[in-house]
Amino acid sequence: MADLITHFSTITDKRKPNGIRHKLIDIIVLAICGVICGADDWVMIEHFGNAKREWFETFLELPHGIPSHDTIGKYLPLSIHRSSRQVF
User: Fold this and answer.
1) So where are the chain's domains?
2) In which element (H, E) is residue 69 found?
3) CA distances from 4 to 11, 30, 32, 88 (A)
4) Which end of the chain is more exposed for a tag (fewer CB within 10 A), N or C?
5) Cβ distance 66 to 53 under 8 Å?
6) Rounded Cα distance, 9 and 68, in Å
7) Tens-digit pLDDT profile for residues 41-56
8) Residue (of 35, 59, 58) closest to 47 by Cα position
9) Model-level pTM?
10) Which is higher by pLDDT, 16 or 21?
């Protein structure tokens, strides 16, 4: 998991610092793990994260718990789109 976190930590977080509750790397890793395990939408990724929260807490910070499906859906596409050449 450390390699995955290191690789995707290169994505620059373009969000305004005010009001950020979830680290971008936490959202990205949660989504990747969720999709690998069969999640195919933001709600399923959130449910997967909540079901595996204890495991995620062993390597992610999750300062405010698992991000909501709205948060995942809002920030993940923008971040990946802007940085796709950087990480893929």
Assistant:
1) 2-11+23-87
2) helix 69-87
3) 12, 11, 9, 12
4) C
5) yes
6) 21
7) 999 999 999 999 999 9
8) 35
9) 0.87
10) 21
Phi then psi dihedrals of residue 68, to 5 deg = -70, 165
What is the sign of the dihedral through the CA atoms of 22, 9, 29 and 40? positive
DSSP string, 21-58: -S-HHHHHHHHHHHHHTT--SHHHHHHHHHHTHHHHTT
8 Å CB contact between 1 and 33: no
- Cβ atoms of residues 13 and 79 within 8 Å: yes
Q: What is the dihedral of CA 55, 56, 57, 59, to 10 degrees?
A: 110
**Torsion sign (Cα): 70, 76, 77, 79:** positive
As a whole number of angstroms, the distance between CA 27 and CA 49 comes to: 10
Amino acid present at 19 = G
Tokens 């009001």 belong to: 19
